[in-house]
Design goal:
The structure holds two protein chains of two kinds. In chain A, a hairpin with a 5-residue loop joins strand 1 and strand 2. In chain A, helix 1 crosses helix 12 and helix 9 crosses helix 11. By secondary structure, chain A is mainly α. In chain A, the strands form two sheets. Chain A has a two-stranded antiparallel ribbon with strand order 1-2. Chain A has a two-stranded antiparallel ribbon with strand order 3-4. Chain A is 68% helix and 7% strand. Chain B is 71% helix and 2% strand. Chain B is built from 18 helices and four strands. Chain B folds into two domains: 248 residues, ABC transporter involved in vitamin B12 uptake, BtuC (Orthogonal Bundle); 64 residues, no CATH class. Classes of the chains: A mainly alpha, B mainly alpha. Chains A and B meet through helix 6, helix 12 and helix 15 of A and helix 6, helix 13 and helix 17 of B.
């Protein structure tokens, strides 16, 4: 029982990442009708926002000490992070919390990246076939990936999580079990809660604001909304920016769990596409549901007991589920009638 | 041959001429070494096969590399178990890849559009992941499948003793090294191209084109399109198997990374870059991409400085700094940019570019003729 519950928990954080990326993909597809293969690259850009923020926070001033000498007789280099000279001890706190802080940077950066991408390239592909959309965004993803590789190098760059988040939460204790039976790393818990909050925020935004209402109307019937004198294109562009922000935040927060490198986005993208298709193209709740579902399934499949029965199942479970769902349910889990059914 | 029209014969003849003289005319571009030329031919076969599925039938497969990988593994196993001669290896790899494509295609073709792409992608990723994990006894995992001295090689042993060291691959008794290897690959590629040309011109090819342009209408007119699409998928998979087998014949080694989805993406890039649905396009696309991969990626700052040595010093340094991120390690950046530009401005690929260029010249000539005519007319 404990083991099952533990695997369930283990699937939540990865499921959260899948759900966030899939949510963005679905938003873009539902609004603009564009299949965006560059969405994984946005996740990757978000992760590198976190890397950049940390680099800025840990920049140091180097001065040669007048009095102290190194054992080799040269003047000792004294390295003082700028942040300490400016903020004192508070600077250390800032460095410690660089990953959560990077979200504040990631939001405007990703919004700009998203809007520029949409206006600059995607907008010309509304009317083209899905195959061409896939191809152009795939090319764009390669370009973004290579730019990041040129700047940051090809190696993964581990990002530490805030020191207070090290260690594990004793969830079993909260549920009235004995201590140390059911523990779960704090950061994974944070990531899961974060993904739930972001998903909730996106849904609330679409459901309870006028802007969201117009966007939903546009998703249902773009032409009519346009005829009513609403500039729907502008709103959809902003939705693309929001999708980029969601992907970027997901990427930035994921860095302590998985050191980012330049192709982290592609790795997630392929899985997220499977998630979107399993959930049903164009269905936001479907994307979220399928994201968590597949994350949890993957975590169950990596249990040793299950691997003993079906070897290698942990590697292929997601694809296997995708094949079964696609063949058995033409619309995916929660897909709407009439959206890309054939 | 008799039913072929003049244009096809001309195209085929020109291509054959271009291919056989490749070691000569590619020399100034630094690409005339046999190893690269062999890969030109092999990837051209892969792209030609992919074009039968994507270009003619309109199904975008994102898992084509799986068949390439299966072909490679089969060929290496054939070397290990039976004989070092490539004919049997190629035959077996085409058959295996065909059977694998039959299974994958039968399932994947129940859906179309993006769902088909995702299904093929899922199958390819499954093969890739399994090749790395559970199927290690067959695929030798990350190390890749290699020849060893302990291999049985039943047929070879029947006719002679095993020599010292690892034997080299042969094809119908010919050594696969050097330019012989290239010409063998070239002949096979031309045969593959000829077959694809015949397929495109046949009633079967017309059926495939019909499926691409409007599958529903085809169904309404009474054709059951499924068997045709499946046949196209299997043929295309067999082409990929042939290419994979040839890769192994050229270099008897097979690794799982050949099956990764980036490899599938590369085939798509080749076909798009050259021109989807055209006969020659995929071949050109494959050549261009393989050329960039091998030549562009070998560039470094020193070489760039040499190339731009005719410029004044300051300007040269500037130009070298600007261009260096695009070559060497970063050649993928160039590839991505070129690719985006092609999809945006030239959706028909290089072949459309050629056609537009041709139109440009043709449009210029008629006025000349017209003016020529008017000038020769006697004044009255």
């Amino acid at each position: 029982m404990d083991a099952i519950f533990l695997q369930f928990l283990n699937g939540l954080d990865k499921g959260g990442a899948y759900a966030l990326i899939a949510l963005g993909l679905t938003l873009v597809f539902g609004t603009l009708g564009v299949v965006n293969f560059a969405h994984g690259a946005l996740f990757m850009l978000g992760a590198f926002c976190a890397v950049t923020v940390r680099r800025f926070l840990t920049m140091e001033s180097v001065t040669l000490s007048a009095t102290e000498k190194t054992p080799w007789g040269t003047a000792l280099e004294v390295r003082v992070p700028y942040i300490n000279t400016w903020f004192g001890d508070f600077g250390n706190v800032l460095v410690d919390y660089s990953v959560p802080i990077s979200i504040l940077v990631a939001i405007p950066v990703m919004l700009i990246v998203g809007v520029v991408m949409e206006r600059g390239l995607i907008k010309h592909f509304y009317k083209r076939t899905h195959a061409e959309q896939i191809l152009v965004t795939f090319g764009l993803a390669i370009v973004l990936q290579e730019i990041v590789k040129a700047i940051f190098g090809a190696n993964p760059l581990p990002q530490p999580m805030p020191s207070s988040m090290n260690g594990a939460a004793d969830i079993g204790l909260w549920l009235g079990m004995d201590p140390n039976i059911l523990t779960y790393p704090w950061w994974r818990l944070v990531y899961f809660l974060f993904s739930v909050v972001v998903i909730g925020a996106v849904f609330a935004f679409l459901q309870f604001t006028t802007f969201g209402m117009v966007v939903r109307a546009g998703m249902a019937d773009r032409e009519t909304v346009g005829l009513l004198g609403i500039n729907i294109d502008k709103r959809f562009t902003i939705m693309f920016g929001i999708a980029a922000v969601v992907a970027g935040m997901a990427g930035a927060m994921y860095t302590p769990l998985l050191p980012p490198n330049f192709h982290i986005g592609m790795d997630f993208l392929v899985l997220s596409f499977v998630v979107v298709v399993v959930g049903g193209m164009g269905s936001l709740p479907g994307a979220v549901l399928a994201g968590f579902l597949l994350g949890i399934l993957q975590s169950f499949a990596s249990m040793n007991e299950i691997k003993a029965i079906i070897p290698g199942i942990d590697q292929v479970i997601i694809y296997l589920v995708a094949v079964v769902v696609l063949l058995a349910m033409p619309r995916g889990l929660l897909g709407r009638r009439g959206v890309m059914e054939n | 041959m008799l039913t072929m029209n003049r244009k096809d014969i001309l195209t085929f003849g020109l291509l054959a001429l271009a291919v056989f003289t490749m070691p000569i005319w590619l020399a100034p571009f630094g690409a005339s070494y046999p190893d690269l030329l062999q890969r030109f031919m092999i990837y051209a076969i892969l792209a030609i096969g992919f074009n039968i599925l994507f270009g003619l039938t309109g199904y975008l497969s994102f898992g084509h590399a799986a068949f390439l990988g299966v072909g490679s593994y089969t060929a290496v196993w054939s070397f290990k178990l039976f004989t070092m001669d490539g004919t049997l290896a190629l035959l077996l790899s085409v058959i295996t890849a065909g059977l694998f494509a039959l299974v994958v295609g039968f399932i994947s073709l129940r859906r179309s559009g993006i769902y088909f792409s995702i299904l093929t992608l899922a199958f390819a990723e499954m093969s890739y992941k399994l090749a790395y994990s559970v199927l290690t006894p067959i695929t030798n995992g990350e190390t890749g499948l290699q020849l060893t001295l302990q291999d049985p090689r039943i047929l070879d042993r029947m006719f002679g003793e095993a020599g010292a060291g690892l034997p080299a691959t042969t094809f119908l008794g010919l050594d696969m090294g050097g330019y012989t290897g290239f010409y063998i690959c070239a002949v096979i590629m031309l045969m593959a191209f000829f077959l694809s040309m015949r397929i495109a011109g046949s009633p079967f090819g017309m059926m495939l084109k019909g499926i691409k342009s409007n599958q529903t209408r085809m169904n309404y007119t009474g054709f059951n399109t499924k068997p045709y699409a499946l046949a196209a998928f299997v043929i295309s998979g067999m082409y990929a198997g042939l290419a994979g087998g040839l890769l192994a014949v050229a270099d008897p080694l097979a690794g799982a990374e050949r099956m990764q989805w980036t490899a599938s993406g590369e085939v798509v890039l080749m076909t798009i870059l050259g021109g989807v649905g055209t006969l020659l396009g995929p071949v050109f696309g494959a050549w261009i991409i393989k050329y960039f991969e091998n030549i562009f990626s070998a560039f470094n700052d020193d070489l760039l400085a040499q190339i731009f040595s005719w410029m004044p010093d300051g300007l040269r340094d500037f130009v070298v700094t600007i261009t260096s991120p695009f070559v060497g390690e970063g050649w993928h950046l160039t590839l991505g940019l070129v690719f985006v530009l092609v999809v945006v401005f030239l959706p028909g690929g290089m072949m459309e570019g050629f056609r537009r260029l041709g139109d440009l010249f043709r449009r210029q000539t008629p006025p000349d003729k017209a003016s020529g005519k008017t000038s020769t007319q006697p004044a009255e």
